[in-house]
Amino acid sequence: MNHPRRGFIKSLAMATVGTSLFGACAPSYPNSSAYVSNPKKLPKVKVSKDRIIKETVGLRPFRQGGPRIEKQELGSKTIVHNYGHGGSGWSLSWGTALIASELVDETKTTKVAVMGCGVVGLSTARTLQKKGYEVTIFTKDSYPNITSAMATGTWSPTSRLVKPDRVTPEFAAMYQKACTHSYKTFQRLLGLNHVVDWMDSYRISNGESRASDYSSELKDKLVTPEVDFYPKGEPLKRKENPFKYSHVSKSPTTIFNIPSYLKMLQDDFLLAGGKIRIKTFQKPEDVDSLPFQCVVNCTGLGAQDIFGDEELMPVSGQLCFLIPQPELNYRANMSGVYFIPRRDGIMLGGNGIDGNWETTPDPEVRDKYLTALEEMMKNLKG
Predict the structure, then answer these.
(1) pTM (predicted TM-score)
(2) pLDDT tens-digit profile of 14-53?
(3) Which homologous superfamily is 68-311 in?
(4) Other CB atoms within 10 A of residue 224 CB
């Protein structure tokens, strides 16, 4: 006779075995069919000019050939370059830090200097510390006066990363390694004071085309079924659609709460014995004067002047922040304009101007953002 309790224990044991055999080994990437949220009555963004709390313009360090991650001999020093990520610096920071640290390993040194205190510099410094290196960061400034503080803070590993016609098999392999490591590292940070979160993202199609930033074409070249870190969006049926627009898709996406994230990285670096020194670099001789055999260059656009990298160019991106609304739990984009609720404000953005060094916000761009957001909210079902 089968005892009911024995049957229950047997079922529980089988479920546990199934989890250990498959759950631990299967990719942990969420997919839209498994990631469910309430599609009805999303909270509305309160849109008005008097709710604007700040406006910024950040400069993405774009290289046509993609990020430079390689060694260079400079006098008696070894320079390890790790810069030029375009709009993908946040997304790929941990992965390219790992690759750069492997180049540092080849120098057989124990003390390393890192140039730059943005997300790439801090991630590289922390990666080196975890390997046992003694690390000092040299930077002309720190948070909040750094380019990384003016990013959107959303998962976008192919955004303005490289020109599609410059992708080689070697670059694709580097990308996949960097993307894999970064993605897994970010997922391990979930639940830590909301420095990393998942959020529903709605894409609204109203018939208007959006200027390409190479991202779509790059996905075809860099993303494979085995290494696809973009959870698939699903078109919403009328009953599932929270908007009045006919064509809306939804997918989960990862966002980074930039202020708390950068503070966490910097605090962890200092607690681990790291040092931060204020220093401005203008030419290679300034780098050569550092009392370190190995220097990791994470200066972004600064590498254009310091190391003469003519492939670098700025791609400006203007952001506008509204007063935070804690109840907002989704992001949306339409006609090239998006909003992302963060703890430091509701961020509006969407533009990119190649070769633009201007960092003064343009009122016309701000008004375009507000108009697009007002239109979205008018068409949100009540």
Answers:
(1) 0.87
(2) 333 333 322 333 334 443 333 344 556 899 999 999 999 9
(3) NAD(P)-binding Rossmann-like Domain (3.40.50.720)
(4) 10
